[in-house]
Amino acid sequence: MTFQSFDHDYIRRLTEADPVVEQHFATYFGSLLYSKLRMKRLRSPQLLEDIRQETLTRVLSILRKGGVKYPERFGAFVNEVCNRVILELSREDTRHGPIDEHRDEPSDPSIDLDGPLVDKDTKRDVERALRRLSAKDSRILRAVYLEDKDKFQICLELKVDPDYLRVLLHRAKLRFRKVYLQRGGPPPPSAHLEGHDSVRFR
Q1: Which CATH number fits domain 120-196: 1.10.10.10, 3.30.70.580, 1.10.1040.10, 3.30.390.30?
Q2: For residue 54, which of 33, 89, 138, 184 sits 20 to 30 Å off, Cα-Cα?
Q3: Which helix (DSSP H) or strand (DSSP E) does residue 111 occupy?
Q4: What CA–CA distance (Å, rounded) separates 171 from 176?
Q5: d(CA 180, CA 113)
Q6: pLDDT digit string (tens) for 79-135?
């Protein structure tokens, strides 16, 4: 990979959410961080991805709250942020211990958007409910649950930070549930959308 040099103009455009620069930032540093984290022998692929997303998101948050003093050292700055995130999330991951992938999930009588749709009728009901929501609510739910998009990319597209994305997602799910239940029947018995309140960044 050819290493990029940075200047005041790049930092200014990134801080002002220029879509071209944002996409370059996400692609360029996303790839560098992935390579760096693969060498760290982390406990799980999920922890690697959490660290990568949290680093990118935190860098943007720092830029938009106060900026950086030395744009020419931006690469080193991102690396340092990543090192701090590695320490934080690795400690948290160790404290909670590994997740038992074979453990049964608790049942929940809500609506499952990110699990397999039970049948054609259920799929049709979900699509109808999504079409009745606002364009923004529908876009968020589709991106997170049906398209399994990278959460950092969703934040960039919507121009929101991770905390506010969590708020938007929670509100969209509540509206979806209300619209879905108006179809006249009970939700699918295996559904558990309300068990997915968190959007993982850390």
Answers
A1: 1.10.10.10
A2: 138
A3: none
A4: 9
A5: 11
A6: 999 999 998 888 765 554 444 434 443 333 444 444 444 456 677 788 888 888 888
